[in-house]
Write a structure and sequence with these properties.
Shape: globular
Strand order of the largest sheet: 1-2-3-4-5-7-6
Structural class: alpha+beta
Number of helices: 5
Order of helices and strands: EHHHEEEHEHEE
Helix content: 25-40%
Number of strands: 7
Distance between the termini: 23 Å
Strand content: 35-45%
Largest sheet: 7 strands, mixed
CATH architecture: 3-Layer(aba) Sandwich
CATH superfamily: Gcn5-related N-acetyltransferase (GNAT)
CATH class: Alpha Beta
Radius of gyration: 15 Å
CATH topology: Aminopeptidase
Oligomer: single chain
Length: 162
């Protein structure tokens, strides 16, 4: 497995993975399944070309992705945000997510980051457990973070010192 920043040529594969992600875990993403379904090819290319998204590949196949936002502001340069974070169902439990998380942490460290932050749905116990195993701790809660068809969902802010 290899982790690398996504590039313009990865746009179509990333969009297909986002369709899967928002369909199977709608509360985990800010984009809705409708918004992802309506995304044009050039929008997907634009999203992956910004440099914040990293892909996890098995050979040439994209099997997961995660965002790593490195702050450029002087006063925030020591922090980075992770998200979204997704691994295709067939790769869960294989150690692939661990590889992706540790690659993000290594990239953040190389950039001088000392804190990683992320938001995760309160109801997503599996993700919260995964992040806790990687040294993240819960420090805050955002009520009514997103609204889905069935009502609102709360998020938890988690942080990890590198």
């Amino acid at each position: 497995m290899i982790v690398r920043p996504l590039a313009a040529g990865d746009g179509a594969a990333w969009r297909l993975m986002m369709i899967e992600a928002t369909r199977t875990h709608p509360a985990a993403f800010l984009l809705s399944p409708r918004e992802v379904g309506e995304m044009r090819a050039e929008q997907a290319v634009d999203s992956v070309s910004r440099g914040n998204l990293h892909g996890l590949f098995a050979g040439d196949t994209l099997i997961g992705f995660a965002g790593l936002h490195l702050w450029q502001l002087d006063r925030l340069h020591h922090r980075a945000d992770i998200g979204p974070f997704f691994l295709t169902e067939s790769q869960r439990g294989t150690g692939a997510a661990d590889a992706l998380m540790e690659a993000l942490a290594a990239r953040a460290r190389e950039s001088g980051v000392t804190w990683l932050d992320l938001w995760v749905a309160v109801r997503n116990a599996r993700a919260r457990g995964f992040y806790a195993r990687h040294g993240f701790r819960e420090i805050a809660r955002r009520e009514d973070a997103i609204r889905l068809d069935h009502g609102s969902e709360d998020d938890v802010l988690m942080t990890r010192r590198l």
